[in-house]
């Protein structure tokens, strides 16, 4: 009801994740009283109208990268269902669509992963490294090297992608 009141669709708008991160909500889609009050204080809002006015700023801060790392890191923790410590690839892909809509390699990576990754799950380390890949490596992968710091999954994707693109 809250998201309807502020005219935000949690399925398609990264603002919902930004608000949840500001509230430090411990459960996806649920705001406990204390979490909500603390989130309102952090966002400096105290009415539905003030939330509505804050939405463009929250969205912009995530999509510009200003608060992306904070919201991105928060998202993994709240998206998994304890005691599970991994996120199904399908769910991760949906979150990447919200959080990384401008990453040119998002769709090719997700498609490749759905066909080639064993287990089709994303652990916290891989989740974190996807953000690093998305923000630090250009779309032509010219900044990517086979540095041992990158997960083997990325090496395999990059090899596949370069071969497909003739790079």
Automatic annotation (TrEMBL):
Domain of life of the organism encoding this protein: Eukaryota
Which InterPro entries does the protein's record reference? DCN-prot, DCN1-like_PONY, PONY_dom
Q: Report a single Gene Ontology molecular function.
A: ubiquitin conjugating enzyme binding
List, for all copies, the residue spans of the domain called DCUN1.
1-162
Q: Name one GO biological process term.
A: protein neddylation
Q: Which GO terms describe its cellular component?
A: ubiquitin ligase complex
Question: What job does this protein perform?
Answer: Neddylation of cullins play an essential role in the regulation of SCF-type complexes activity.
Protein name per Swiss-Prot or TrEMBL: Defective in cullin neddylation protein
Q: Which organism is it from?
A: Spumella elongata
Task: Cite the source lineage.
Answer: Eukaryota, Sar, Stramenopiles, Ochrophyta, Chrysophyceae
């Amino acid at each position: 009801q809250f998201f309807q009141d502020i005219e935000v669709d949690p399925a398609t708008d990264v603002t919902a994740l930004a608000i949840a991160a500001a509230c430090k909500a411990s459960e996806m889609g649920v705001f406990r009283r204390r979490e909500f009050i603390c989130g309102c204080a952090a966002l400096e809002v105290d009415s539905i109208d003030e939330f509505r006015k804050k939405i463009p700023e929250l969205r912009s801060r995530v999509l510009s990268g200003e608060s992306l790392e904070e919201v991105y890191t928060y998202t993994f923790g709240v998206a998994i269902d304890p005691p599970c410590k991994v996120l199904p690839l399908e769910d991760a892909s949906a979150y990447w669509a919200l959080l990384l809509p401008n990453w040119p390699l998002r769709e090719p990576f997700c498609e490749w992963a759905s066909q080639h990754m064993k287990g089709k799950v994303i652990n916290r380390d891989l989740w974190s490294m996807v953000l690093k890949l998305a923000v630090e490596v250009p779309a032509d992968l010219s900044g990517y090297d086979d540095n041992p710091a990158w997960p083997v999954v990325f090496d395999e994707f990059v090899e596949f992608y370069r071969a497909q693109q003739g790079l």
